[in-house]
Amino acid sequence: QLTKLEVKTMQSRSAPLGPEEDYYPVDDYELVLPDTEAVDFARIEKLSFLLWSDPEVCINNEPLIYNAAVTFAIDGESWPLRLRYDVSFIEAAPCHSGPHVLFYDYTYRAIKVDKLLDQRRWGKIAADTGISLSQENTGSFDSSNGLSCASETEEETVLVVKAFGHADNEVFSRAWCAHMGFSAVVADIDKTCMACGIREAYAACVTLLILTDARRNEDVEEVDRQPCRKHHR
């Protein structure tokens, strides 16, 4: 939730030219163009609701609690992502006559969607949560032992996820956000350039941007659905 100060400073915090100056050196700006190569990565297997609360200990007819999860097929294995957090997805506003240049102070890191499983921490929010992803077939994916640790730079750097290709790649990116506790800006690269998407993330005080391309979404095909073993925590 944005504070009053963050709302008041939104325009200056995301200004295309950066802070107001007497002159603007050309070298302070970069034309950022995403690699739009499609990635054949994840397919949705199922949406499940697993009982979390113990019916035997519920009193006074208290409602039962369920864990919502989306299970994806990745490399022939089933990976469930639990929708733990009520995060927000902000649709990026369209820009005009893009792509545009990006001021150097708007720092970002761009990865393809298939690298999200390796990105076990990002920024302050993820570093403060001990979250584990349970792989249903072959082990576990523990974000508390992530490959990268949060730094002061990461707390403001925008992680750009290139979820191009099959539409399920975008669903996986959103489910990953809900599992880890990230809100994100979602930009269709056909309507909003990468630079403007990054600036909108700065304006909204979020550190994640999901890039999609509705023009190149592949046709949805049938996925073999195998029974999944339940993992209890």
Describe the structure.
The structure is a single chain. The chain is of the alpha/beta class. 17% of the residues lie in helices and 27% in strands. The protein has five helices and twelve strands. The strands form four sheets. The protein has a five-stranded parallel β-sheet with strand order 5-11-12-10-7, with helices on both faces. Strands 2-3-4 form a three-stranded antiparallel β-sheet, with helices on one face. A two-stranded antiparallel sheet has the order 1-6. Strand 11, helix 5 and strand 12 (208-212) form a beta-alpha-beta unit. The chain is globular, with a radius of gyration of 20 Å.
Strand order of the largest sheet: 5-11-12-10-7
**Unreliable parts:** 126-152, 227-233
* Helical content class: 10-25%
Give the termini distance in whole angstroms: 30 Å
Give the biggest sheet. 5 strands, parallel
Strand residues, percent? 25-35%
N-to-C SSE string, H for helix and E for strand: HHEEEEEEEHEEEHEHE
Structural class: alpha/beta
Q: Which descriptor suits the 3D outline? A: globular
Offer a quick outline of the entry.
This protein has helices at residues 4-8, 10-13, 123-127, 167-180, 194-204; strands at 29-31, 42-51, 66-74, 77-82, 89-91, 101-103, 108-112, 132-135, 139-142, 158-162, 184-188, 208-212. With 233 residues, the chain is of the alpha/beta class.
